[in-house]
Write a structure and sequence with these properties.
325 residues, alpha+beta, D-Maltodextrin-Binding Protein, domain 2, 3 domains, four-stranded antiparallel β-sheet, DNA-binding transcription factor activity, transcription, DNA-binding, transcription regulation, WH_DNA-bd_sf
């Protein structure tokens, strides 16, 4: 049966005074070392002895010695107290400078196009910080799972999180390969998707994601349930399947930019492409930030604006040319 253990208030009171007296065999020298009066040291030791229920020192006018209880207490308390001091120093160090293990929960899609250059420059700037990247689609509880921060699309981040933008907003676009469109007409309206094979994305909750579009008649957003031959759990898998001609995919524009530029994909339904908030770094709260995370946040914010926007420039150019047409 599991027992409940608690640390009694004041359980460590007097231990440091005891250890100093035991080392110097003198209440006066212990007081000088700890910067207090001899009477304060004597009072602290008396309180400790009362709490333990045994005399720890033999006192005479000429010397101070340890009782058997004092010897045994010293043998166990000294290494334990030294470990406690060492633990405090380690924790203090992590609270004063960027150091230690920085754990980030991220989706696979952002690693090559966003996170790799960012992490490379951060590691060079802060060599005392070790960065661990845990790749997964799940929206996990950062605190419960031991993560310092996460990276996700803005619409998936809980309201109680602090969010720092990593990218500006970008379009969510529908793409297909030239091979897929051989012998098929390209959709010009969202209703045309009923005649097309559409690749679907299953959220970490288990639900199939709907496809979102701008409703240009009233300026709102509509969601459509599509169907097709493949269900994937992440965007990179959907991107690969679209390039292979399995079906149409709705993806963040930056992810498809390279394939579009290379002619491996073409975009359709451009007038209906909605804008989503972008990618964000998020974390639980300002008061709990250690220097390692603060350094990473500052590093993100210090990146040149052009660097932060570079990965969506193709999307912006396509949007501009679409409007001109």
């Amino acid at each position: 049966m599991k027992q409940n253990f608690t640390v009694r208030q004041g359980a460590l009171d007097g231990v440091e005074a005891f250890l100093s007296v035991a080392q110097h065999r003198s209440f006066r020298r212990a007081a000088a070392e700890l910067g207090v009066t001899p009477s304060a040291i004597s009072q602290a030791v008396r309180v400790l002895e009362t709490r333990i229920g045994a005399a720890l020192f033999i006192r005479t006018t000429r010397s101070v010695g340890l009782t058997e209880a004092g010897e045994r207490f010293l043998s166990r308390a000294k290494p334990a107290f030294e470990e406690l001091v060492a633990a405090s120093e380690i924790a203090r160090g992590l609270g004063q400078r960027p150091a230690g293990l920085l754990r980030l929960s991220v989706p696979r899609a952002v690693v090559p196009i966003l996170l790799e250059p960012l992490i490379a420059s951060f590691c060079k700037a802060y060599p005392e910080v070790e960065v661990e990247i845990a790749v997964g689609k799940e929206l996990i509880d950062l605190a419960a799972e031991g993560f310092d921060a996460g990276i996700r699309l803005g619409q998936f981040i809980a309201d109680d999180m602090i969010a720092v933008p990593l990218t500006p907003p970008f379009h969510l676009i529908v793409v297909g390969s030239p091979a897929y469109f051989e012998g098929r007409s390209r959709p010009s309206q969202t209703d045309d998707l009923r005649q097309h094979a559409c690749l679907r994305w299953r959220r970490s909750s288990g639900a199939l994601a709907l496809w979102s579009f701008n409703d240009n008649d009233n300026g709102s957003t509509i969601e459509i349930a599509v169907s097709g031959p493949l269900i994937a759990s992440d965007f990179p898998t959907m991107l690969g399947a679209a390039i292979e001609g399995i079906g149409l995919a709705q993806l963040p524009a930056p992810m498809a930019a390279e394939a579009l530029k290379a002619g491996k994909l073409v975009q359709v339904l451009e007038p209906f492409a909605p804008v989503i908030p972008g990618v964000f770094l998020y974390y639980p709260g300002r008061r709990q930030i250690l220097p390692k995370l603060r350094a990473f946040i500052d590093h993100v914010k210090s990146r040149p604006a052009g660097d932060r926007k570079a990965w969506i420039q193709d999307d912006a150019r396509r949007a501009g040319s679409s409007k001109r047409r």
